[in-house]
Write a structure and sequence with these properties.
mainly beta, two-stranded antiparallel sheet
């Protein structure tokens, strides 16, 4: 489990390995159950080859979690490579 600081998740990935490549992220609680607002079905698919792309769920980029709860992340890659991820405090303008 992770304890994180920051409200925004960013990824460095390449989803151009084949047609229709994508990356999606799901946030799970400490019992590895999807947090409904951040479930996989709500994650906006990321495509292309990007160094610092913000993950969003139904176009919402900032993640608001209750308290200081530990989480798990589930990455779903389709014809893609994930190189890194990070948590940052605010959305860049």
């Amino acid at each position: 489990a992770l304890k994180i600081k920051g409200k925004r998740r960013t990824l460095n990935y390449d989803a151009t390995l084949n047609d229709r490549g994508s990356v999606r992220v799901e946030i799970l609680d400490s019992n590895r159950r999807p947090i409904p607002e951040y479930a996989l079905k709500n994650c906006d698919a990321l495509t292309g080859d990007v160094i610092d792309q913000t993950v969003s769920w139904k176009e919402k980029e900032n993640v608001e979690l209750e308290g200081d709860q530990p989480i798990h992340l589930r990455f779903v890659l389709k014809n893609a490579d994930l190189f890194s991820f990070k948590f940052v405090e605010t959305v860049q303008e």
